[in-house]
Specification:
64 residues; mainly alpha
Length: 64
Amino acid sequence: MSNLTRDLLIKTIVANEMQLHQGSDYTQTLKSKYHKWQHESSFALCQKYNEINHTRITVDILNS
């Protein structure tokens, strides 16, 4: 598996959520979602990433 980092998980999650965005204020919504996920725990990031990609990564796999 490639090197997984918190940053990669955040970008993947935000990109997935932004695919569904259809309203105005795209840039503000993007910033808001990115900010939200930056402050989530690594465990929460892994859970969401696994939900999106149907994987089973754990916090132990993440690289700093």
